[in-house]
Amino acid sequence: MKLLTQFAALLFLVFSSALNAQQSGEIIYKKVYSSWDAERTEILKFDGSECLYIEKNPKLKAVSDEGYDVTYKARDQSWYLNMESMEVVERMKDAKKKKYVLWDYQETPYEWEIHDEFKTIGKYRVQKATGMDKNVAWGKATVWFTTEIPLPYGPHRLFGLPGLILEARLEKDFKSKYIFDRIEYKDVAELRPTDGVWIDKKDPTKESAKRSNIRKALGSNE
Questions:
Q1: What is the DSSP string of 174-204?
Q2: Are 161 and 153 in contact (CB under 8 A)?
Q3: CATH number for the domain including 118?
Q4: Count of the separate structural domains present in the chain
Q5: Burial letters 142-164, b for 16+ CB under 10 A, else e
Q6: Closest CA to 157 of 6, 10, 31, 11
Q7: Distance CA 144, CA 120 (A)
Q8: What is the pLDDT along the chain (222 residues), one digit of tens a residue?
């Protein structure tokens, strides 16, 4: 049986979970490909209704299942979300220019479909949910969340469920998945990024426009 979440009820659960927790800390996720890519570590920092997802990995080389050499460029970027104002700030570094660029926009809630399916991940009982990723290039997201950790966040910029996402798969992201490793409750510094060159980007879902604007901004601010 599938339960389709409604915006009002979802937002109530999300904000209640985030604000009532009144906790801060870091969540460590592992991004793992099925066989041929190296495991990557990604970090989600949170403080009340704010979170910052950090993707920072060195250049990676691997061999695909078909025997092809694959190289992944180094990545240094982050994604900030304030769930009260729904403000997003993205920050990305250009390795060649050695500069960061930032842009902001208003986010909209996910339309999650919560399924009556359960399993156990570690010591947590988790429930299945599905929804289309904000970036259509990734397709449908299938996730498992737990209300035992009442935080409305998750890996890969996924958010808006009444519990922390412990596992996620993206339909078009090869065979990779994001896996919860651990959570550490502690104080965190200011989460909203401010260091870098601000650019004006009106459509955050178009990756080609993003790359074009970034190149223009970096070229005109040397």
A1: TT-EEEEEEEEE------S---SEE---S-T
A2: no
A3: 2.50.20.10
A4: 1
A5: bbbbbbebbbbbbbbbbbbbbbb
A6: 31
A7: 9
A8: 444 444 434 444 545 544 444 589 999 999 886 555 667 899 999 999 999 999 987 777 766 667 777 776 777 899 999 999 999 999 998 767 778 999 999 999 999 999 999 999 999 999 999 999 888 777 899 999 999 999 999 999 999 999 999 999 988 766 678 999 999 999 999 999 999 999 887 544 444 445 455 555 555 444
pTM for the complete prediction? 0.78
User: Distance between CA atoms of 188 and 138, rounded to whole angstroms?
Assistant: 30
- Of 221, 195, 105, whose CA–CA distance to 157 is shortest? 105
Q: Which domain holds residue 40?
A: 2-220
- d(CA 9, CA 32) in angstroms, rounded, equals 33
83, 62, 43, 88: which is closest to 210 by C-alpha? Answer: 88
Token look-up 């009340």 returns 48
